[in-house]
Amino acid sequence: MDDETLEAEPQVKRRRRRRRWLIAGGVAVVVVLAGAFALRTPSPVGHWRSAEGYDAFVEAYDAAFADMPEPDETLDVRTDFGVVRFYRFTGTGDAAEPLVLLPGRASASPVWAGNLSSLLAIGDVYTVDLLGEPGMSVQDRPIEDDADQAEWLDQALAGLPEDRFNLVGVSIGGWTAANLAVRQPERVASVTLVDAVFVFDGMPVGTMIRSIPASVPWFPKSWRDGFNSYTAGGAEVEDVPVADMIEAGMQHYQLRLPAPTQITEDQLSALEMPVLAIIAGRSVMHNPETARETAERVLPDGSVVFYEDATHAVNGEHPEEIAADIAELLGV
User: Fold this and answer.
1) C-alpha distances in angstroms, 279 versus 101, 196, 218, 296?
2) Of 18, 247, 212, 260, which is closest to residue 134 (Cα–Cα)?
3) Parallel, antiparallel, or unpaired: how do β-strands 125-128 and 188-194 relate?
4) Could you give the 3-state DSSP secondary structure of residue 211?
């Protein structure tokens, strides 16, 4: 084996580990219900616990964003609930409507770095930092229920130049996309749900219990890393820029969001736009077989793809395959 090969091997391993983390960390703490309510503060909106914590997050965010292509445009859209940050990337594909990528809990736009090259081959892409989560969006009015969650996203999309969008959401981002589609579908051309939580099945009690230590900011960082690794099938999560960003958000940002309500089968069966459900066979965020059966039964115009060997980090593990699934859904 030559010296060049020896030097390349650690880089390959780092890339593989990073790709698995892209989603694992971003969506790992999908719901930290006990922690979120135990750590209530008088503020009715999500906020940074300190200026120093915000600075630490921004430093980590910028480092993770360095792995993204340069956005063609940065947009801050005013809604009734706050200002929503979008990044626009010009694609090379022929999709009639742009993709809008919704990240998981505490993850923000940089978690899509490993997916953008393949998704840009489909068409133009927006990434968004979810309102009320760590990121560059700024919440300034309480989000009190599922209707508010749909309303802020609808208003944010209304501030973009296009009329309709192909939503792609992972984990809680998938729930956010589905929640908009069942409540205010006018701007939704299609929905892709990547191992979405609280859509096709509830969350196992064991996973919720294991998430509690990850929600407490003064607990050791290793506890948060341990839970994130658990959701990604044991993948390492240290010394990765996106992981550092997510950990900084988990530690320094106080969520003030309502717990998501399970999307009902009646709501899903009433959807009229194309829907793609991508379900990871080793996910710990729901029962994969139950989620698969529900999706196959209730989606009226749905495609269900089951990645048997994938964890909840599925779009970090299979970015090209997921892009191909979306391209087939959109007919491009």
Assistant:
1) 17, 8, 33, 11
2) 247
3) unpaired
4) helix
What are 262's strand-pairing partners?
A: none
- Both tokens assigned to 42: 């008088």
| CA–CA distance, 3 with 125 (Å, rounded to integer) | 39
- In a domain, residue 7? The reply is no
Q: What is the distance of C-alpha 163 from the center of its chain? A: 23
Under 8 Å between Cβ of 80 and 129:
no
Domain with residue 141: its CATH number is 3.40.50.1820
Q: Is residue 9 part of a domain?
A: no
Residue 129 to residue 108: CA distance in whole angstroms: 5
Ramachandran angles phi, psi of 236, nearest 5°:
-70, 145
Q: Which helix (H) or strand (E) holds 111?
A: none
The HSE-up count of residue 213 (CA atoms within 13 Å, CB side) is: 13
Question: Residue 99's CB: how many other CB atoms inside 10 A?
Answer: 29
Q: How far apart are CA 144 and CA 45, in angstroms?
A: 10
Tokens 């230590």 identify what position?
213
Instruction: Look up residue 273 and give its amino acid.
Output: M
**Mean pLDDT of the region 168-181:** 96
State which residues form the domain around 27. Answer: 14-330
pLDDT at 6: 41
Number of domains in the chain: 1
Polymer length of the chain: 332
115 within 8 A of 87, measured Cβ to Cβ: no
- The residues near 310 (Cβ < 8 Å, ≥ 6 apart) are 195, 280, 281, 282, 283, 317, 318
Token pair, residue 31, equals 């719901």
Helix (H) or strand (E) holding 175: helix 172-183
Within a domain: 282:
yes
DSSP 205: H
Mean pLDDT rounded to a whole number for the chain: 84
| Per-residue confidence band for 313, with pLDDT thresholds at 50, 70 and 90 | confident
